[in-house]
Amino acid sequence: MNVAMTKESLPYSNESNLEFFLSCQDHTVSRETFNLYRDKENDLLITLPRPSIQELPGYYDSDDYISHTDSKESMMDRAYQMIKNYSIKKKVNMINGMVPKKGLILDIGCGTGDFLKACQKEGWQVYGIEPNDKARELTDKKIDKKELVSDRIDSFLNTHEGQFDMITMWHVLEHVPNLLEYIEQVKFLLKPEGSLVIAVPNFNSYDAKHYQAHWAAYDVPRHLWHFSEKAIRNIFGKYKFKVVKTLPLLFDSFYVSLLSEKYKAGKTNLLRALQIGLYSNLKAIRSKQYSSLIYLIKNENKAL
Questions:
Q1: In terms of Cα–Cα distance, which of 252, 255, 253, 235 is closest to 243?
Q2: Are residues 289 and 196 in contact, defined by beta-carbon separation less than 8 angstroms?
Q3: Distance (Å, rounded) from C-alpha 175 to C-alpha 159?
Q4: DSSP code of residue 101
Q5: What is the pLDDT of residues 2-44, one digit of tens each?
Q6: pLDDT 10s digits, 221-280
Q7: Residue 282 to residues 36, 102, 245, 291, 293: CA-CA distances in angstroms?
């Protein structure tokens, strides 16, 4: 695939403020190598060079891209689905505790719709965004058709300004090509006191530092951005969002380590992955640098 650098690659800094960080391979589709550069001001990593908007969907065209399927064929599939089902229950309980009353929720990157289905059962009026056609078809079969699932955020901008009580992005923000524009659109859709929940990998975690170029959560070039806690606070602070709490996704260190072992050694090493995942979580008890972090964010001011 022809991959080129674009202006949108550098939303905060000019080139002089970027420093080379690491080279990684795309293990899922193309086997191409991509570089990560650090935006020193925001402690944000940027994948370069990057696919164009038109080419990016091609990098998701793989049966191994598990979040777009309900597959349970392989051991990895079954582990993912088991962890997903457990995590959904925890996520729904968490968002229920963030609001005084259940209202409208928009899940961006809703995948195969299991989280939306669980929210709907709890009394939320659910909406979703999922660009992948196959995943969106699975979502449509799981939730009440009175609600709306679309392939892009633009579908809601003319009809739902300031209407959502909650917007969630579970491992989605790292995929968004036009990062700043997307944050503006999320702001536009949220109620003035609405809540935003974002979960992203944390490149400052122990497992990231241990596996380095083989860390599966870099997932280039599908992950265009790689966040630290400082990056999230800085970027969202520019739009009058406030991070009120961070929480760990404890299972991510194990799942990511399992994939990372495969990328590093060419085969699955379950015992070693469990050891690294556990050690990463234990180290994070003090450092708070878990493999993935959930950010609970409040919309403090509607005006941009």
A1: 235
A2: no
A3: 25
A4: S
A5: 333 443 445 555 566 799 999 999 999 999 999 999 999 899 9
A6: 999 999 999 999 999 999 999 999 999 999 999 999 999 999 999 998 999 999 999 999
A7: 27, 35, 20, 11, 15
Q: Report the run of H or E that residue 137 belongs to, with start and end.
A: helix 133-142
Residue type, 262: K
Give the number of other CB atoms < 10 A from CB of residue 32: 15
**Degrees (nearest 5) of the Cα angle 167, 172, 174?**
130
> In which region does residue 142 sit, left (phi positive, over 0), alpha (psi from -120 to 50) or beta (all else)?
alpha
Beta strands at 18-25 and 33-39: parallel, antiparallel or unpaired: antiparallel
In order of 113, 207, 210, 261, 280, the CA distances from 254 in angstroms are: 23, 9, 13, 10, 9
- What is the DSSP secondary structure assignment for residue 156, as one 8-state letter? H
The answer to whether the Cα torsion of 51, 56, 58, 61 is positive or negative is positive
> CB neighbours of 124 closer than 8 A, spacing ≥ 6?
102, 103, 104, 105, 166
Beta strand 125-129 pairing with 104-108: parallel
| Amino acid letter, 79 | A
Beta bridge partners of residue 127, listed in sequence order: 106, 148
Token duo for residue 78: 């079954």
Length of the chain, in residues: 304
Token pair in block for residue 138: 């699975």
| Spatial distance between the Cα atoms of 280 and 249, rounded to a whole number of angstroms | 12
| Distance separating the N- and C-terminal Cα atoms of the chain | 37
Q: Give bridge partners of residue 104 from the DSSP assignment.
A: 125
